[in-house]
């Protein structure tokens, strides 16, 4: 197979060769990316490169630091991040332009079924602009509040972001949250107003919102339709012009930040790395700053968007690294990798993700405990924001207590276990963490929602800030908000510390013993009982005596029955009903 590459004027895409054959297991092999070994001045005539030559010429040293741009796409959920990523992949020739290009970077089955991004994905794009060959490292991030930790990690490998805003919906909660993540990281922000093709689109109104809320001049906004491809090329031009190249040093010793990872059952841990200093290549001996273990690098490369091995990776570039890490505990997100004989000061890691929702997880059959344990370990490598602690239950056996960033996060994790590892589990009712202060068997005075701030974004939109108890918003608040507002309101939250409240630990007793799986903390539950004498009036003493006698006989009968045995299936049905 041959591919024609010609010299052009202005900005043009770099054509990638088509599929060159089949890889192992019968799938299409990774598509090599062009790197154009000669300087632009030597492109006097069109030239044919064979696919083998393209692969051989994948030399990452041909991209000087000043020609590298590392950026993420951030937005509120459903504002068009993944669609924009699809168009950028097409414009740069990274993928063929077809009608089937939808959520190309969303590789998980759960992402395609739900139509959302839950896992940040990286792709290296090669783009020719004004005679210079640029390396654009794109990271597509999730939009839902539960996966904001994925966004914060991704931003550590970037120098700028594309902030996508729906021209119809305007600025929403997660738009604000993601903007401030980028702002705090001191990244360049390029506002992109998407979906201008919609009937009710009002890009001018959204421009004013962006200027008022983020203090970004309206003339810096780029108006596009990612679905139709309208004006998307301007986005690439803005990435080159407005996002600075990374500040790195290739002559210094290697310092590589692990910002994400996946697990391959044949090759072990595949670490996504951003190089801040130095060079790494196959055969290098590297050390993990976290574990102090030494490894030999088996493969380095870029994602294009599939894995494409390269000779080396250089400072300023984003790619992947495989070094024979077989144990999931060896690949820590935020770890620094350096050369064995050249130790360096570790890079700043990440703030630990703080779980908001906790639930128990148990295998349906205890004989599957070890298989489920292995599945959870591998999945938590791909999702380091999940916390895992061993747990046990008299009714359900051995299991784990898992911490998640939200209810959707918990649902997605459970769905991935079923789809990717064929694991069926029992999931207990989700709860949130509490700090209990006991005083004379009472918990302390209650304090519910308190309004903290109100900002009018424009004539039709207002942003309200409230201080809420976490258990009031995690489980069903978002659904209720969407229902009451007919889907127009959006919602975001962050931890605000602990507040005192009058709470009650509600125990469910069976044979006089507490069933831990059904225990929950609730707000001010009063005792409930039925007064069998309530309808008996003053002179009806005979009826009163009969009822009291019947009640006493019932209690006596219950005492004779003794303990009640509840089968495991009954517990499972109760937990499913409650959840």
Short description:
The protein is an alpha+beta fold.
Task: List the topology elements.
Layout: E1 2-5, E2 11-13, E3 47-50, H1 51-56, E4 68-75, H2 81-91, H3 109-114, E5 121-129, E6 132-140, H4 148-155, E7 160-166, H5 173-184, E8 188-194, H6 203-214, E9 222-223, H7 233-242, E10 255-264, E11 268-277, E12 279-281, E13 285-288, E14 294-296, E15 299-303, E16 307-309, E17 312-314, E18 318-322, E19 336-339, E20 357-363, H8 369-382, E21 387-393, E22 397-404, H9 407-421, E23 425-427, E24 450-458, E25 461-467, H10 470-474, H11 477-484, E26 503-506, E27 509-510, E28 513-514, E29 520-523, H12 541-561, H13 568-578
Parallel strand pairs: 4-6, 4-7, 7-8, 8-9
Antiparallel strand pairs: 1-3, 2-5, 5-6, 10-11, 10-19, 11-18, 12-17, 13-14, 13-19, 15-16, 15-18, 20-22, 20-23, 21-22, 24-25, 26-29, 27-28
Protein architecture, described:
The chain folds into 5 domains: 2-127 and 141-242, Rossmann fold (3-Layer(aba) Sandwich), CATH 3.40.50.300; 255-339, Elongation Factor Tu (Ef-tu), domain 3, CATH 2.40.30; 357-427, Alpha-Beta Plaits, CATH 3.30.70.870; 434-525, Alpha-Beta Plaits; 529-579, no CATH class. It is globular. The strands form 8 sheets. It has an 8-stranded antiparallel beta sheet, covered by helices on one side. A 7-stranded mixed beta sheet has the order 2-5-6-4-7-8-9, with helices on both faces. The protein has a 4-stranded antiparallel beta sheet with strand order 21-22-20-23. Helices cover 24% and strands 27% of the residues. By secondary structure, the protein is an alpha+beta fold. 36% of the residues are buried. It is built from 13 helices and 29 strands.
């Amino acid at each position: 197979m041959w591919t024609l590459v010609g010299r052009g004027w202005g900005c043009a895409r770099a054509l990638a060769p088509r599929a060159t054959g089949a890889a192992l297991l019968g799938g299409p092999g990774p598509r090599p990316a062009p790197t154009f070994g000669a300087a632009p001045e030597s492109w006097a005539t069109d030239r044919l490169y064979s696919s083998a030559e393209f692969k051989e010429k994948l030399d990452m040293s041909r991209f000087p630091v000043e020609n590298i741009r590392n950026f993420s796409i951030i937005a509120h959920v459903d504002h068009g991040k993944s669609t924009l990523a699809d168009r950028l992949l097409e414009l740069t020739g990274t993928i063929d332009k077809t009608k089937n290009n939808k959520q190309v970077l969303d590789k998980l089955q759960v992402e395609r079924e739900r139509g959302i991004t839950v896992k940040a994905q990286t792709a290296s794009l090669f783009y020719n602009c004004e005679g210079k060959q640029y390396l654009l490292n794109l990271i597509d991030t999730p939009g839902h509040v539960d996966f904001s930790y994925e966004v914060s990690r991704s931003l550590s490998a970037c120098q700028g972001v594309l902030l996508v805003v729906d021209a119809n919906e305007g600025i929403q909660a997660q738009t604000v949250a993601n903007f401030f993540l980028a702002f705090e990281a001191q990244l360049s922000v390029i506002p992109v107003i998407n979906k201008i093709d919609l009937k009710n689109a009002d890009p001018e109104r959204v421009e004013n919102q962006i200027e008022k809320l983020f203090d970004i001049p309206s003339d810096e906004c780029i108006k596009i339709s990612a679905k139709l491809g309208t004006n998307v090329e301007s986005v690439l031009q803005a990435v080159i012009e407005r996002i600075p190249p990374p500040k790195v040093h290739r002559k210094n010793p290697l310092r590589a930040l692990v910002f994400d990872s996946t697990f391959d059952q044949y090759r072990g841990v595949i670490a996504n790395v951003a190089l801040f200093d130095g060079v790494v290549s196959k055969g290098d001996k590297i050390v993990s700053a976290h574990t102090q273990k030494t490894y030999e690098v088996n493969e380095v490369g870029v994602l294009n968007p599939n894995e494409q091995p390269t000779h080396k990776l250089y400072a300023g570039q984003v790619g992947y690294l495989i070094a024979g890490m077989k144990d999931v505990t060896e690949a820590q997100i935020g770890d620094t990798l350096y050369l064995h004989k050249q130790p360096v000061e570790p890079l700043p890691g990440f703030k630990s993700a703080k779980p908001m929702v906790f639930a128990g997880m148990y295998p349906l059959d205890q004989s599957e405990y070890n298989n489920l344990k292995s599945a959870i370990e591998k999945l938590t490598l791909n999702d380091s924001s999940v916390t895992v602690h061993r747990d046990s239950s008299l009714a359900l056996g051995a299991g784990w207590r898992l911490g998640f960033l939200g209810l959707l996060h918990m649902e997605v994790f459970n769905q991935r276990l079923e789809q990717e590892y064929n694991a069926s589990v029992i999931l207990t009712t989700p709860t949130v963490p509490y700090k209990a202060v006991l005083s004379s068997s009472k918990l302390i005075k209650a304090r519910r929602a308190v309004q903290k701030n109100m900002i009018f974004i424009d004539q039709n939109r207002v942003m309200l800030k409230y201080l809420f108890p976490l258990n009031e918003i995690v489980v069903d608040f978002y659904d209720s908000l969407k229902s009451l507002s007919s889907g127009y309101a959006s919602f975001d939250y962050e931890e605000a510390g602990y507040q005192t409240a009058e709470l009650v630990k509600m125990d469910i007793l069976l044979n006089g013993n507490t069933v831990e799986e059904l225990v929950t903390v609730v707000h001010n539950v009063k005792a409930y009982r039925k007064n069998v004498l309530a309808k008996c009036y003053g002179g009806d003493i005979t009826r009163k005596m009969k009822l009291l006698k019947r009640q006493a006989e019932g209690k006596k009968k219950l005492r004779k029955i003794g303990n009640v045995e509840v089968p495991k299936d009954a517990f499972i049905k109760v937990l499913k009903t409650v959840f």
